Amino acid sequence: MKLITTTLVALSMALSSVAYADDAHHPEKAAAAAPAVLSSGEIKKIDKEAGKVTIKHGPLVNLDMAPMTMVFRVKEAAMLDKVKVGDKVNFAADKINGALTVTQVELAN
Fold first, then answer.
1. Distance of alpha carbon 73 from its chain centroid, rounded?
2. Terminus-to-terminus CA distance in the chain, angstroms?
3. Nearest to 88 by CA among 52, 56, 49
4. Which band of pLDDT confidence, cut at 50, 70 and 90, is reported for residue 36?
């Protein structure tokens, strides 16, 4: 019985270390599991043809950026249908393939 228990504990530890090692090699999995940090901003311009939006925003903590007005790509073109110039929004942005990209946007309350 002791041999079975010891074997099960060792197997459990081995499997958990394999799962941890897999996440270490695929940081996007770990990032996808983390909730997005939303920043506040105001829509200044929308360019549907280019798939871009200009936002005057507060600090972007996850990107270590100070408040400013800048152009972002959008992850999904449908996001641009949710907002209009002048809207106050809460949004998440990240660097995707080298481009600053809005990954989530919602109207502020």
1. 13
2. 61
3. 56
4. confident
Which tokens in the block code for residue 16? 């958990």
* pTM (2 d.p.): 0.69
If one counts every other C-beta atom within 10 angstroms of the C-beta of residue 79, the result is 19
- Domain count for the chain, please give it: 2
Going by pLDDT thresholds of 50, 70 and 90, the confidence category of residue 13 is: low
Report the C-alpha gap between 38 and 61 in whole angstroms. Answer: 9
- The answer on 83 and 63 residing in a single domain is yes
> Which residues form the domain of 67?
39-107
Which of the 8 DSSP states describes residue 98?
T
**Torsion angle of C-alpha atoms 75, 69, 38, 76, degrees rounded to 10:** -10
Both tokens assigned to 72: 């972002």
